[in-house]
Specification:
Layout: H1 4-16, E1 23-27, H2 31-43, E2 52-55, H3 56-64, E3 67-68, H4 71-86, H5 92-111, H6 116-119, H7 127-132, H8 138-148, H9 158-183, E4 186-187, H10 189-198, E5 208-212, H11 219-230, E6 234-237, H12 242-245, H13 254-262, E7 281-287, H14 290-295, H15 297-304, E8 315-319, H16 325-331, E9 339-341, E10 345-346, H17 351-365, E11 367-369, E12 372-376, H18 377-384, H19 387-390, H20 396-406, E13 411-413, H21 421-426, H22 434-448, H23 455-481, H24 487-499, E14 502-503, E15 513-517, E16 528-532, H25 551-556, H26 562-577, E17 582-588, H27 601-610, E18 614-618, E19 632-633, H28 637-643, H29 656-664, H30 666-674, H31 689-704, E20 711-712, H32 714-722, H33 724-738, H34 741-747, H35 750-771, E21 776-793, E22 796-812, E23 815-822, E24 829-830, H36 846-861, E25 868-874, E26 888-889, E27 892-893, H37 901-916, E28 922-923, H38 937-940
Parallel strand pairs: 1-2, 1-5, 3-4, 5-6, 7-17, 7-18, 8-15, 8-16, 9-15, 16-17, 23-25, 24-26
Antiparallel strand pairs: 10-14, 11-12, 12-13, 19-28, 20-21, 21-22, 22-23, 26-27
Helix pairs in contact: 1-2, 3-10, 4-5, 4-9, 4-23, 5-10, 10-11, 17-18, 17-24, 22-23, 23-24, 29-30, 31-33, 31-35, 32-35, 33-35
Amino acid sequence: MNSFLHLLAKDLIQKYSYNFDNLTILFPNKRAGLFLAQELAQLIDRPVWMPEILTLSEFIERQTGLKKAEELTLIIKLYKTYQEYAGTTERFDDFYFWGNMLLGDFDDIDKYLVDAKDLFSNITALKEIESAFPYLTPEQVEFIQSFWRSFNSEKYSREQQEFLNVWDKLYPTYTRFKAKLLAENLCYEGMGQRLFCEQLSKHHTDRQLIFAGFNALNQCEKRIFSYFRDNRQALFYWDYDLYYSANDNHEAGLYIRENMKLFPNALGLEHFNNFRYNDKAIEYISVPSTIGQAKLIPTLIEQIHPERQNSYTDTAIVLCDESLLTPVIHSIPDTINKINITMGYPAQNTSVAALIAMLGDLKHYAKKEGEMTHYYYKPVIALLNHKLIKSSCSEDIPKITNYINTNNIVYVAEKSLQFSDITRAIFSSSEENLLDYLLRILKQLITSIQPEGHESLAIEKEFLFTIFTTIQGIKNTFIEENIIPDNKFYLQIIHKILQGVSIPFSGEPLEGMQIMGLMETRMLDFKNLIILSANEGILPKGGHASSFIPYNLRLGFGLPTPEHMDALFAYYFYRLLQRAKNIKLLYTDVTKGMNSGEMSRFLYQIKYESGLPIREIHFQNRISVQDNPTISIPKNPSILEQLKSYTDENERGISPSALNTYMECHLKFYFKYIARIKEKEEMAEELDHRLLGTIFHQSTQSLYQTFPDGQITAEGLDALMKNDSLIEQHIQAAYEKLYDTTVSKMLESGANDLVLSVVKKYVKKVFEFDKTLCPFHIISMERKYRMPVTISAFDHPTVIYVEGDIDRVDRVAQGTRVIDYKTGTDKTDLKDLSSIFDSNNKQRNKAAFQTLLYCMMYEYENPGTDPILPGIYSTKLLFTPNYSYLLKCNKEPIHRFKPYEPEFQDLLVQLLEKLFSPEVPFTQTELPEKCRTCSYNEICKQK
């Protein structure tokens, strides 16, 4: 295979006989120059002066002496120009994004030599258009008329008026902006090209010019090419294939066909008929996921190179979607010791860019209360767990994050986070703008990282330095232009600029397997190609640059449109394939997000139009359908020793809720109480069902404590129910036990206010219900009770201690009530006592089990109490008519616990003997529906 650059080098040697000292070769990009120099070096057998190799942009910059300014600088200068002429008070923050669009439009206007005065004319009188633009074709005039036809000068719509208000200011803005840039010896690319075109005769050169590898030429480039062609100073080398250039309907040849008519190719046709006639082996491979494409790379390389090679320079992996770079790098086999990554690593994908975003969030959500700054917990925890921060103080961070989660601290005080040099820098409320703050932290991190012997740290330090330099450049630009944006805009600017920044990989660009984006393959040829993400919407790219110039006016004045970009991508794609022999095209066949799951239209074109044999492979992930293994934990000596802690009168007893957990799932009991695997703790900045219950319990208890000696009367409850401020005060006090006073002020959550109002309704409903029982006496609320239970375990009679907090015990006319509060819809009925001990009973009444156990515990500490009435206050069901709090066994209310106690005690002993038996392992529940909401289902995989 003779590559295009090989053909170019060989032809130059034949034409100029090694006399290259007066020769300048102009390419559309820099990369081709390196490969051409290599081709020349391989063909030259004597010392010679190498030709000068430049990009066209570099050549124009040399001729005009104008320096291309940074995009941010250009937009700021455009903003000032627009502000001066339009007299607007619009902030730069608001102007930036449409100013960026306008700059792109000005660039197109100049590159395509459009008369800006004509373009920005307000021609609502349609008859004037033909006479105003005699140089346009009838088709172009029709496009312009079709746009202005919708404008009625007698009655503009609001949108049309707003459009015209800006449109009328654009031509003066354009001319003044360019004059301002010229005075400072600056330009944007289109301006530099246009100025060079308009003064071609002044920019004389005696050198012979070679224009090579161009495709879609703008009007400036056509005029430049024509000038040097007419002066007999230029040769033109076009890279194409007859397959698409000879077909007038093929979009890949749209521009090449015109170019070769205007500027004939210096190379003969015989070199450009490869697409159909070089025995291509083409494979289309559909893959279920984008990452799956990367994972196939080792297999595909082995197919192309069955034996290990000394060099893989004839092979390229082309990424149509450059976000696949990281998985691709990790998928390259270890046998390939040299790769060249042309695109660099995107700065926006680095850990440092993530750190910048976190720091921005930290500042954005911070709140000041008095002299103290408080930080919202989410960015605080994210920052503390960021690897660059965590590595500097790894021991302290878990303690801090656990403290924040455990204590439900939604806003964290600044002083509690300043425990190391880097956290003192981060959690600092010093009055400085965001850029200075970010630069200070990045500088401190750069200084603190010592990468010696740690390759990963060396890479992180390079990322830090690159992004530090970028942000410093942004800061310098704003200072020079005297612009002071707000912090939110600083972050937007940093994010946008980082999208265009890449950190170069070190390596030899001419050695090894090439990993590159589609745009970087221009003028390069490879024998073997692996092309990833060949999906519609990616190849060609969906979506196009925004423009303030309407589509029809773009067509009318010959400016590029979205179709222009589609033809451009078609050329890049077909040109890349034309000399290749082994081609593997991968695409994702699953619709997900913006990915259509459809292969590119270019692949369909080759399949149905080229006549070439295509092998289609549908790759599928192997999915295991085997059942998850059953987990069974035998009670080894260590576990039995832990269970024995419940036999110690000085240790905490086993709780009713723990026994409920055991009956729900033996394995869950093991995870929670033996292995002590904590359930994932979620910060609750808005009150959930669990916290609502806590506030209800605490506020009800504190309100009843306002009655002297716990004696509750109907008159007292009436007075309390009318005292809204007192009820709200007690609810607020319970709320502030969850969130301290300072933090609760900062929450500003309407949802929390709504939940607190619900708690108030629940509290009042309990008082209203209790009023029907008055008078009564409160014996205890939220008090711990404890009792021993003798069972047969560990080969002898053993005492197990059971303990728990009973929500409420009171004495009414009918007897002593043991009440359990429930903020859900827990029911009061049970079929029989055995049903509440049956682990396989889907309708097992857990609340009834707990309440009856509380009755037994209370009676142990208060022997002779009779009758004891077990009851449940279900706050939601209290609102239903004729609600009865009493438990019902087989539909009969339990007015006395005593008759039920012997059977309940026997069943409890059996349960405890099973729990403490060495022969009974901890196994999974047989009811899979219980697993759906279980915190441990990720461990046992039962869902």
